[in-house]
Amino acid sequence: MTKKIKARRAVPITDPVGPRPSRNRYIAAGLAVLVVLVSIVVFATSQKTAPLAPPSSAPAPATLSPLAAAEAATPVSPATYVSASVCKSCHEPEFKAWSGSHHDLAMQIVTESTVLGNFADAKFKHYGVESSFFKRDNKFIVRTDGPDGKLTDYEISHTFGVYPLQQYLIPFPGGRYQVLPIAWDSRPKNLGGQRWFHLYPKQKPDSKDPLHWTGIYHNWALQCAECHSTDLRKGYDPASDSYKTTYSEINVACESCHGQGSRHVSWAEGAKAPYPTDADIGLPVFKSRWNEAWKFASPDAKYAVRDHFADPAAMNTCAACHARRSTLSEDKKAGAPLEDTHRLALPMPPMYHIDGQQLQEDYVWSSFLQSKMHQFGVTCMDCHEPHSLKLRAEGNALCTRCHNAAEFDVPKHHQHIAEGKGAQCVTCHMPTQDYMVIHARPDHSMRVPRPDLSTLLGSPNACTQCHTDKGPQWAASAMDTWYGKAWRDRPHFGTTLNAAETQGLKALPKLLELANNTAQPGIVRATALTLARPYASAGTLQGARTLLKDADPQVRIAALGMIEPADPMNRVLIVAPALSDPVRGVRVEAARILADLPDNRIPESRRAARASALKEYEDALALEADWPSGSVNLGNLRLRQGRTDEAIAAFERAIARDPGLTGGYANLADAFRQQGRDAEGEKVLRRGLAKLPHDADLHHALGLLLTRKKESAAALKEFVEAARLAPTNSRYVYVQAIAVHSAGKRDEALAILRSANKRFPADIDILGALISINREAGDKENTLRYARQLAELLPDNDGVKRLIAELEVR
């Protein structure tokens, strides 16, 4: 299996930042001392504005491939899958190259020839559990701990993956196939292979935990199947909690990339050479032109240039399985953009470093989209042969096809011993990270090392990843010696993205500038918009609206998120056209944002599109019904629609499937709150804390509930604990300070807020509290000081200006 099984997915499939409580919920009864001031400074979600003028042009350009666009315009009979054996009859060279590739061997039925692991009575011990691997009656058996914790014999049915590791599937009732976490290291012995190893060497999940190998998160259909077989249909039935999973072919075969082949076969049966170049052959034509497209303008040119950009359809085909994403639809169109069927994870924490470098397993697509290679027209096929999956050339020879060897493959450039590891282009520009313990995955963002930014951003750099005994300052000084200091002045989007975490609202102008900079990668611009979303206001509406016309669907999706906090009138006016966007992911996000509005608030001309997009959204949630987080997402939708009883049922289902899912408890308690059933909500939160005693979110939610019950002392304890457990969460320390002040401890509250202001100098709520409490205490000097600090963040806020003028006069 090429995808490491991840624990509870916290980010919903159609909400880039996850469910978040309304800002107003934090100003609860008993904590209302700052309501007057907060009404001045908290503008992002509460300020009413006049509606914007109707849009003057279409919402966004289409981004479907030419073939997909033609199919949309001209209905044809549905194509069907025909199998790789049919393709072979005309495409023998491609079939031969594919045979034996990682795609061909992605999943196989267990036989003597497909199993690589040692089943000759081998033993493997992990945290006291000794597993045995042996054969019985020509069957491959593993004896290991089952769902009851007892050693049990299980028959292996399928192999999963081939190199550098191979995993094994075990059939269970209900159509399940569970993925064994003990894998075979298939590397040669001299590289440390030919051994059994555990994918979680430092973890010991209890047999009742959903993270145990027999639990939901090691389920083949849930986690892995879509990208290891052709035309996979998950077939999950929530009512029976069972699967009827199907596929056309067990592995990643021809039609996984090229689409259903029946129409092409029909064309081929009647076609005769010479074939017209513009003929509709029943399949998209993926022409990478990898060999002839790149030319050096002169012998001394540094870089080759592509004569014209390739059709993105071929790369789109790769993206669906080489990206960290969730699924919106199983109905894929070959060559369509990824966003038409999937929701892409953006390169931001906790899955990535703040500068976009890989951290958790990302499957390379989001990294590649950040690269200058992608911006200048490099495609997957320029480096990788698409059928055998082999590199087009080995070592630096691959890179020097487009980077002049005389300029780059020399010690003057790489400053390392020729032919050594440091002289390899990928060592510096594609440093690896180990996933699944032994799988060294190169970072496909292909960036220039920036050790100078490591200190600022806390992100890695290739220099000290190799020279582990050195620090980033050493590496930066070495680069100064080699290249001068001009390299330090090259702007990098990572500093702007980092400012979103360190500077709060103050970072908004730079984030919006980055989002509008079309010279930057679309995925980076979308990330900037997503990080700017907590600071969305009336003033950002027009800019977000403009970006809904952007060519990149990721940018359009992120721009919709910026519009979500707007009042209903503006939301409808700006978002409704996106319900007809040519890309499903944009339509789904638009449907989510308008889901709380009844039909009579939607223009009649848009209602059919809204119904269709909402159906696509609900279908996407249904695909994720086996995920506990999918049930949370469904509950969030029903809550927005006012269908609270259905929301409660969805949240309960999420908790039942994964009792360790924070969002299930918090959202369920909030649903009870909306029904005036806080007593039941309190039971839910305490049930969650019994399971997750160190969860800051649950402590905070319980504190808010107890505040509503006017149990101030008990609430304060919960707020203190939440702030202690999540010291980087400015909201929690703010609420703690307000609770302390409400308890009559003004000096203690001020001390907490002053400390918080040093850690979060751009947090407007903390500044608002400091202004209000200092003013209440008669401390004019500090009131004015913090008001001026707030004015730097809100230079156009009339309320803050009046406050400063009033203080300066006295």
Describe the fold and architecture.
- This is Tetratricopeptide TPR_2 repeat protein.
- GO terms for molecular function: oxidoreductase activity.
- Keywords: Membrane, Signal, TPR repeat, Transmembrane, Transmembrane helix.
- By secondary structure, this protein is α+β, with helices and mostly antiparallel strands.
- Among the domains are: 157 residues, Serine Threonine Protein Phosphatase 5, Tetratricopeptide repeat, CATH 1.25.40; 145 residues, no CATH class; 198 residues, no CATH class.
- It has 37 helices and 18 strands.
- Strands 1, 6, 7, 8, 9 and 10 form a six-stranded antiparallel β-sheet that branches. Strands 2-3-4-5 form a four-stranded antiparallel β-sheet, with no helix packed on it. A two-stranded antiparallel ribbon has the order 11-12.
- Strand 13 and strand 14 form a beta hairpin.
- The protein is globular and about 90 Å long.
Helices and strands, with pairings:
Blueprint: H1 35-41, H2 66-73, H3 84-88, H4 92-98, E1 107-109, E2 122-126, E3 129-136, E4 139-145, E5 151-155, E6 158-160, E7 165-172, E8 176-179, E9 182-185, E10 195-198, H5 220-223, E11 236-237, E12 242-243, H6 254-258, H7 262-270, E13 294-296, E14 304-306, H8 313-319, E15 325-327, E16 342-344, H9 365-370, H10 372-375, H11 380-383, H12 396-399, H13 405-408, H14 411-414, H15 425-429, E17 432-435, E18 439-442, H16 451-457, H17 462-466, H18 472-483, H19 493-502, H20 508-515, H21 522-532, H22 541-547, H23 553-563, H24 568-575, H25 584-593, H26 604-623, H27 628-640, H28 644-657, H29 662-674, H30 678-691, H31 696-708, H32 712-725, H33 730-742, H34 746-759, H35 764-776, H36 780-793, H37 798-809
Antiparallel strand pairs: 1-6, 2-3, 3-4, 4-5, 6-7, 7-8, 7-9, 9-10, 11-12, 13-14, 15-16, 17-18
